[in-house]
Amino acid sequence: MNRTLIAATAIALAAWAFLSSGVAAEKAVKLPPPAQDLVATAPTETAVFAGGCFWGLQAVFQHTRGVLNAVSGYAGGDPGSARYELVGSGRTGHAESVQVTYDPRQVSYGTLLQVYFSVAHDPTTLNRQGPDHGTQYRSAVFYRDAEQQRVTERYIAQLDAAKVFPARIVTQVSPLAAFYPAEAYHQDYATLHPESPYIAAFDRPKIANLKATMPQVYRDQPVLVSATRRN
Length: 231
What we know:
Blueprint: H1 3-21, E1 45-50, H2 54-62, E2 67-75, H3 84-87, E3 95-102, H4 109-120, E4 128-129, E5 132-133, E6 140-143, H5 146-162, E7 172-175, E8 179-181, H6 189-192, H7 197-213, H8 225-230
Parallel strand pairs: 6-7
Antiparallel strand pairs: 1-3, 1-6, 2-3, 2-8, 4-5
Helix pairs in contact: 1-7, 2-4, 2-7, 4-7
């Protein structure tokens, strides 16, 4: 199956899921910032988040001030299975993820966590976001070092203790073995396909929630993978 056909199939399946599910997009939850944050010393840092379809997750971080690049991809499995048609089976160990490269002078790791838990997805649903089901859609933070692990775990404990969600957070906190960028047709998807029923129902509301809930970090013009590759 060629990539064009795979892309067409993915679009059709996403639209079908939207039209048949009757599931509403999750609402943002206004959250306190982390009580402890990461002290970054490098000019750029990276973080990897998973939480449902990577189209919407990527779009949220592309609209976050201080983010230099946000790439859709796969994390949690082996390199040989990091392909969309295999990850979709839910048996590869991979989660649809986004690797965020950011300027810590403009946005901290803790603030990215706040965006992730507040706006980007619902961290209380196990292996499901909106109409998408399976372990490939699980909520997970893939940490690069012990400091990312510490800040993430303490923030989850902080949010659970404050009972800001109606249920406990189920987000996995796992070491990052590797991140594998997704196929080109998945990059910048929400920006390139605003007419998609799926994007309109489940992803554009996330961007609107970011603007309403965390206006201090929202930016109107997204930073796109396609533009980054040209520079």
